[in-house]
Specification:
Four Helix Bundle (Hemerythrin (Met), subunit A), 5 helices, single chain
Length: 146
């Protein structure tokens, strides 16, 4: 009887651990998707604000995007390559240093954008260079087409 109880307890523990493990993978994948989505929405807001001459309102959004790119460095562990409708390509894990460098560059470029918008002659061009080009580089190399 003791062995049976131990077996039941062990099985219950393994099943509950597996469920928690699966949940954490789901949370990670959904979390990174949410951050990328938020950055895209914020990028569009920044474009609208800059077009309207509201540079000071755009700067905190740029900082938020920068922070998100830094956080994303922790959102691609090995166990999140598949599942939960991830659009991340295997190239992220195959070229982890390159992906991490791109996320860091995107973060740094958002901070740089916040500094140069007050003196930039062509806001659209500088925004393309320091924001949208990073999005394109990541999508072209590390995201499944959709």
């Amino acid at each position: 009887m003791k062995k049976f109880k131990l077996l039941i307890t062990t099985t219950a523990f393994i099943l509950s651990s597996t469920f928690v493990y699966a949940q954490s993978i789901e949370e990670i994948i959904k979390g990174r998707k949410a951050m990328f989505s938020e950055n895209y929405q914020n990028g569009k807001k920044i474009s609208i604000l800059l077009k309207s001459g509201k540079k000071d309102e755009a700067k905190p959004i740029m900082k938020k995007m920068s922070d998100n790119y830094k956080k994303l460095l922790d959102y691609f562990p090995e166990n999140t390559k598949e599942g939960f409708k991830t659009e991340a390509l295997p190239s992220i894990w195959e070229n982890k240093d390159e992906f991490n460098a791109l996320m860091q560059k995107a973060s740094n470029d958002m901070l740089k954008l916040a500094k140069v918008i007050d003196t930039a002659d062509d806001l659209r061009a500088i925004q393309k260079e320091l924001m949208w080009s990073n999005c394109s580089a990541c999508h072209n190399r590390f995201r499944a087409p959709h």
